Amino acid sequence: MQSNIEFTFDGQKMLALPGQSVGAALLAANQRTLRTTRFNENERGVFCGIGICFDCLVVINGVGNQRACLIEVTAGMNVQTQVGSHA
Amino acid sequence: MHNVVIVGAGPAGLSAALAAAAAGAPVLLLDSNQRLGGQYWRNSSEPIESQKDQHFDLDTGMLLMNAVKARKEISVWNGAQIWSASHKDGVNTLRVLHQGGEKIINTANLVLCTGAYDRTLPFPGWDIPGVMTPGGVQSLIKGHGVLAGNKVVVAGSGPFLLPVAAGIIKAGGQVVELLEANKSKRWLLSPLTLLENITKLKEAFYYIKTISQGKVRARFGVAVIAAHKGVDGKLESVDVATIKRNFKVKKTRNVKCDVAAIGWGFTADTSLAGALGCKLKVARDKGVVAEADSNQQSSIPGIFVAGELTGIGGAELSMAEGVIAGISAAKFVGCKVEISRAHKKRRAKKQRFADALIRSYPVKSGWLTWLKNETTVCRCEEVSVGNLKYAIEELGATDSRTAKLFTRCGMGLCQGRVCGRSVVDLVAAELNISPTDTDRISAVNRPIISPIPLGVLAAGE
Predict the structure, then answer these.
(1) Is residue B143 less than 8 Å (CB to CB) from chain A?
(2) Under an 8 A CB cutoff, do A42 and B143 touch?
(3) What ipTM goes with this model?
(4) B447 φ, ψ to 5°?
(5) SS3 state at B323
């Protein structure tokens, strides 16, 4: 068994396995909402899982519009729910 | 000798790389994933031998992946993202983000093996967190060892639902319903086609065995037509309908679940081929694919296309096409090599099976009756069915392209990858016309392959 990597989601401590995407690690922790939409403020999460749909957008280390399903968790990563377009 | 440049390291790309290298060509293989294998042989960072459970035939995949890694003539760029591509005077220019910077590749030859992604249909509630594509649920299991939920409804149409349901059960999840929208007798293919593709039959039985061990009974002529969220905003249940042959609803019941994996076959990823100017066409299933000649060459000399990009057909057809594309590209850069008749025979055999499958899993227009005015169609730009109807009825849009411009439908970050195909059908149905091939092909026009932060570009200059 590989050891866990620590990161935070909206300030909360989270764990991921090496190689896991941000989206996968958050789903494993039952965090399903990753962003709210610009106009209707609807909650969205991982949909296509392979980088096609851009629905799982999160803010990573201050940079918005990052696809949670594609980006691997690294130690100390600061992940936040994306509100709107994060402009 | 110039590199043979191959994009995509799934079944087609790996086969192309090995065929080109065997013919004596140096190869550069680009893939956006961190590991080889594509979607079909997607694997996690755990030792690969321990992942066979989640695959029907990972042995073949490991054979190809290990061979690619072992061959000195093949360089691999993993985690390489092509964001822009153009073709001018016989030269293809790819702008690639790799290892934190931008690299520019100029090459006269290219082998595109960009694969496919789940085809989805909009329905009320499909944007609630917990509604996912079957491919998404599977990629989480295969690539990350994560089950998206505990009680999963698997639905839609096509043979791919079987491995997804089987994978969930093997990973310890519960498949509460397995629903195929088409009727079971459509599964019967011509006996001859089945006999010559016996491995496909074995693969189906392999999944069915797991599914029956999980005490799941597949239902046919049944579809998920709506999803509902609970007070927490998360998926709580889906409406499951018995449907007619034309997909119109007969009767509905409600099923509790925390994940619904719903897909309707696949859509080829033509973004790169389209940006380079390769001729695209509408396939039998009305999806847009890249045109290929018998040597897997696209309409542009020197650009070869293989795998799902040329039509949805599965891993075995992709491998057969990949080998031919790899040989063709090697020949193009000057290698003395010929495509054998055996290669073409193998491809024809797999093609017959793929054609039979496509005929067995049609998506019928009755799905349009599941929609409500407030149903989201474009997830990115939050455009509803009502918005599209308004563009047609009040603003006078007479085709999907104009409706798109009025509403921004399909103009968000995914550039219509998710909704584009459905919008064409939806707008045509509203106008009471049939979509033309031009409508379908213009819906996949994407100037940017993948949006990237502007800062990355600034840093690269």
Answers:
(1) yes
(2) no
(3) 0.96
(4) -65, -35
(5) helix
Residue B22 CA, chain-centre distance (Å), reads 28
- Cα-Cα-Cα-Cα dihedral of B321, B323, B328, B333, to 10°? 140
Of B117, B233, B234, nearest to A48 by CB-CB distance is: B117
Mean of pLDDT values over A9-38: 96
The pLDDT value recorded for residue B458 is 62
Measured between beta carbons, the chain A residues lying within 8 angstroms of B412 are 54
3-state secondary structure of B241: strand
Give the dihedral of Cα atoms B356, B359, B360, B365; nearest 10 deg.
170
Query: Which residues are registered as beta bridge partners of B106?
Result: B93
Taken in order of first residue, the domains within chain A and their CATH numbers are: 5-83 (3.10.20.440)
Q: Which residues of A touch chain B, with CB atoms under 8 Å apart?
A: 2, 17-21, 23-25, 27-28, 32-34, 37-40, 42-55, 57, 63, 65, 69-70, 72
Domains of chain B as residue ranges with CATH: 4-117+267-339 (3.50.50.60), 120-261 (3.50.50.60), 371-442 (1.10.10.1100)
Cα separation, B31 vs B38, whole angstroms: 8
Residue B191 parent element (H or E)? helix B191-196
Q: What is the pTM of this model?
A: 0.96
Tokens standing for A10? Answer: 């909206």
Instruction: Outline where DSSP puts E strands in B360-432.
Output: 376-378, 383-384
Query: Which uninterrupted H or E stretch holds B75?
Result: strand B74-77
Which amino acid, residue A82? Q
**pLDDT tens-place string over residues B41-71:** 999 999 999 999 899 999 999 999 999 999 9
Virtual torsion, Cα B170, B226, B132, B402, nearest 10 deg: 150
Kindly report the length of chain A.
87
Answer for the pair B77, B29: CB distance below 8 angstroms, yes or no. yes
